[in-house]
Design brief:
Structural class: alpha/beta
Number of strands: 13
Distance between the termini: 15 Å
Strand content: 15-25%
Strand order of the largest sheet: 3-2-1-4-5-6-7
Radius of gyration: 21 Å
Order of helices and strands: EHEEHEHEHEHEEHEHEHEHEHEHHH
Largest sheet: 7 strands, parallel
Shape: globular
Length: about 375
């Protein structure tokens, strides 16, 4: 069997698009019984027995204070050693740092030419910093294939780089997400409309817009709010906790907030809300959108990045930071509960029709074997 090594830049237990999608890919590739699947990631003290995987290969996350030294000397050397010891047939990086590292290692002959190096870009090429754009262009020959999650990003890669082989493979969900369990619906506040927000605590996720939306809607007695915030480093956790305190002071008992929710807690979050809003600016895909759809949520997203491609309906889009428009759209459901139920059913079917886990498995297997 082929040795397939996935690479992620964060602990796989940290909630995020790359970690969740990697978990799904690991699960689906193991089902084929054609691959020995490995995961390369930073060290963790969390229990990872739930992963259907041959082995987890780890390295200390931060050995030096300087980020550049960490990434391009220590981390690169650690990953080179892991690849040397494992000798995989395929290395598939899921984050920008990992993509650049395997591209550099292969271009400079630090890993064998016969190892296929693949990078999935979950962002938008045009939103990268100048430094990332330069690095990818300089090292592009080290990548055998690039995968994008939206056609918008695929076109940006074709426009700005000389990538040899590029494909579009949409994010999908684990199989369990395509079955809706009515018994998991919330048992309280049935007469309320609960608005949900979930994302990493990054600037481009526009948590400032979230705060403005809540301020606009907080006085409506029929509306409540629910938050799931993901924060990786201690510094980001501290910033998120300050933000959480401000939100709780503004909304009081009208809000529930979870920091670094588990996957099970995320699923519970979606079952408990009626409307999911993604406020990001320059989101490449927005996996949370399809998670929310699968749990019968009406979804709204900013008309930016790959979100329009995912939602594919102008009725459910709003311009970045356009608090007035999204607030008005939400309030329409307060006065028309029947319409809310109709749109919930629409999205539940839409995600099943368009984002199939079978399509992901078949497409990846094709890319890994061609």
């Amino acid at each position: 069997m082929k040795k397939l090594m996935y690479m992620i830049d964060n602990n796989i237990k940290i909630i995020g698009g790359a970690t969740k999608s990697t978990f799904t890919m690991i699960t689906e590739m193991k089902k084929l019984n054609k691959y020995d699947v490995y995961l390369c990631m930073p060290e963790t003290d969390k229990n990872l027995e739930i992963l259907p995987i041959n082995k987890i290969l780890t390295y200390p996350e931060n050995k030096y204070k300087n980020k550049l030294i960490n990434v391009f000397f220590y981390k690169m050397k650690a990953i080179q050693q892991i690849i040397k010891q494992l000798n995989p047939d395929i290395v598939h990086a899921q984050d920008p740092q990992g993509g650049i590292i395997i591209a550099m290692l292969k271009k400079f002959g630090k890993i064998p030419k016969n190892i296929e190096c693949i990078y999935t870009d979950r962002q938008l090429f045009e939103t990268y910093s100048v430094y990332y754009k330069i690095f990818f262009n300089l090292m592009i020959k080290g990548l055998d294939k690039v995968i994008c999650t939206t056609n918008i990003n695929k076109e940006q890669w074709k426009k700005h780089t000389k990538v040899k082989h590029i494909e579009c493979v949409s994010n999908v969900l684990d199989e369990k997400w395509y079955t809706y369990d009515k018994t998991n619906e919330r048992k309280v506040d049935k007469d309320k409309i609960i608005i949900g927000f979930a994302a990493r605590f990054d600037a481009y996720k526009r948590w400032d817009t979230v705060k403005s939306i809540c301020k606009k809607l907080k006085d409506n007695e029929k509306i409540k709010f629910s938050f799931c915030i993901a924060a990786g480093t201690e510094k980001i956790k501290e910033e998120a906790q300050i933000y959480i305190k401000e939100i709780k002071e503004m909304l009081g008992d009208k809000v529930t907030i979870k920091l670094n929710a588990s996957m099970d807690e995320m699923e519970e979050f979606y079952y408990n809300i009626d409307i999911f809003v993604l406020t990001s600016e320059g989101e490449s895909f927005g996996r949370t959108l399809i998670e929310a759809m699968s749990r019968r949520c009406v979804v709204f997203g900013s008309n930016s990045g790959g979100v329009p491609d995912v939602i594919n309906d102008k009725r459910f889009l709003f311009e970045v930071n356009d608090v007035e428009t999204i607030s008005t759209k939400i309030l329409e459901y307060v006065d028309d509960v029947k319409k809310l139920e109709e749109d919930k059913s629409y999205f539940e079917q839409y995600v099943k029709d368009r984002f199939s886990v079978d399509k992901l498995r078949e497409k990846l297997d094709q890319l890994y074997t061609e």
